Amino acid sequence: MPAISVPDGRQLQVHEAGDPDGFPVIMQHGTPASGLLYGPHAELAREQGVRLIGYDRPGYGGSTRLPGRAVADCAADVSTIADGLELERYASWGISGGGPHVLACAALCDDRLVAVASLAAVAPYEAEGLDFLAGMGEENHVEFGKVAGGEPALRPYLEAEATAILAAQPEELVAVMETLLGPEDLALLRGGFADYLLESDRHALASGIDGWLDDDIAFIRDWGFALESIARPVLLLHGDDDRFVPVAHGRWLAERIPGVEARIDEGDGHLTLFERRMRETNEWLLAHA
Hints:
Blueprint: E1 3-5, E2 11-18, E3 23-28, H1 39-48, E4 50-55, H2 74-84, E5 90-95, H3 98-108, E6 113-119, H4 138-148, H5 151-167, H6 173-176, H7 183-189, H8 193-205, H9 210-220, E7 234-239, H10 247-254, E8 261-265, H11 271-276, H12 278-286
Parallel strand pairs: 3-4, 3-5, 5-6, 6-7, 7-8
Antiparallel strand pairs: 1-2, 2-4
Helix pairs in contact: 1-12, 2-3, 4-5, 5-9
């Protein structure tokens, strides 16, 4: 797991899998999570000719914190990763909390980035015409209530949540996320997928909750770019039974991203997009390679 140096002195930890000679695709993880890559995604990447690259956002895992970061700041980090790995062209996808970050890259990265896919992305906190919390599970209502109170309210809450996550066994994750899980997500979490989620979270949170805290605060602030400025191909996927990030967020984003190809998947939840929709995501990104 190499680290790439950023001009300001920070380190970004990078993870790679799939076909080392394939087309590069950078994964932008959710919140909280890390750039550790999911085994079935790695196998699929090898099959489809994808060089799959993950990285820990600042403050998670092995990446240095960037206090006060905005969503838009990830574009410079992703460009630095592309420099460090000598990528001439690449694509990117992001899920959940990684969705706003991949959209920032779509708006701000240079022409080496050919296309992006946004899966189950959260919309801006003060999005006009959107009730941000409507349809979310109770855990998210509580968390974003703390976010609105700033770091003094949020930090102790996230520290307690991280302690519970780090102590959990795979079969206990259902209880940790209970109100966020629809039937499809619940079925998935009762399988081997829970092992991966815990591995990713344990890596992400091993050095503390700074990355999670900085993500949450960045989500409710100005993202630092305009969705309307995006001028490259975007695929947007969202499940209609998502209780982490309700489908209204996906529809709101789809109405504002120029030229977006939006696919609202009936019966999908939040986690199921990560499990079920990667083949079509890779196919779509590779078509723009």
